[in-house]
Amino acid sequence: MRIATWNVNGVNGRLPVLLRWLAETKPDVVCLQELKAPDEKFPEGVIRDAGYGAVWHGQKSWNGVAILARGCDPVETRRGLPGDPDDSHSRYIEAAVNGVLVAGLYLPNGNPKPGPKFDYKLRWFDRLIAHAATLVGTEAPVVIAGDYNVMPTDSDVYKPERWLDDALFAPQVKAAYFRMLAQGWSDALRTLHPDETIYTFWDYFRNAYARNAGLRIDHLLLNAPAAKTLTTAKVDSHVRGWEKTSDHAPVWVELDL
Questions:
Q1: Known binder of ligand: residue 34?
Q2: How far apart are the C-alpha atoms of 67 and 73, rounded to whole Å?
Q3: With DSSP H G I counted as helix, E B as strand and the rest as coil, what are the percentages for the chain, rounded to 5?
Q4: How confident is the model at residue 125 (pLDDT cuts 50, 70, 90)?
Q5: 201-247, pLDDT tens digit by residue?
Q6: What region does 152 belong to: left with phi over 0, alpha with psi -120 to 50, or beta?
Q7: Is 106 known to be catalytic?
Q8: What average pLDDT does this structure show over 158-186?
């Protein structure tokens, strides 16, 4: 089973790019972030014509997450994280697909730091960690995939010294990521590629993609039953070079189930 995550940076504006990539790679499950569309504007019909069922949690202009499944409909198990009934951001969705529990997330950016946006990011991360603790021991494979908006180590960021004041590289945020890993989650890309320079995001400015001045902020975390079946973990970095594409590239794993 190939499970992917991609921050599409606007699902309707990037629809031709999304469809091209789906046709090229035929992933079995896709977690999408930054739909930037309310529920009624999600392009369900076009995506179904491409062979995918979908569940989504939209929001006008901002945020938004979805899970696509090839040849079937994902069975939604949760939308939104527990712990804050007043949270209006559409950032988390969870579904079962052919025996695997897949969660898709879009963690808050948190800039500027310090400030209320950074405080919200830390609270959201704490809620994610609390919920992840209820999933990690599941006997079935579990994958929590998405845009985590964190570079865990210096090797995950081009010129780390330039990011010391950024919310994506803040010590509290990196510590939260490793608290989550300590529950028993495996970072799929680093499990198979511990020492490689791997990025999943390149800014639109300053020719970042051509210079490979990137960040690794999109992650797939696997519980033990999923990690035992992990065979491949890659970034489709060439997609970042397509016309009118997202500033993120798709990231995917293959599980030998």
A1: yes
A2: 9
A3: 30, 30, 40
A4: very high
A5: 999 999 999 999 999 999 999 999 999 999 999 999 999 999 999 99
A6: alpha
A7: yes
A8: 98
Catalytic residue at 147? yes
C-alpha closest to that of 198 among 244, 229, 240: 240
Is residue 248 a known part of a binding site?
Answer: yes
Give the chain's domains with CATH numbers.
Answer: 2-255 (3.60.10.10)
Q: pLDDT tens digits for 187-203?
A: 999 999 999 999 999 99
201: left (phi over 0), alpha (psi -120 to 50) or beta: beta
Residues 92, 106, 199, 209: which is the catalytic one?
A: 106
**Beta-carbon neighbour count of residue 185 at 10 Å?**
23
Q: Which of 28, 147, 166, 218 is catalytic?
A: 147
Residue 133 identity: A
Q: Which residues pair with 52 in a beta bridge?
A: 70
148 is known as an active-site residue:
no
Catalytic residue, candidates 57, 131, 219, 248: 248
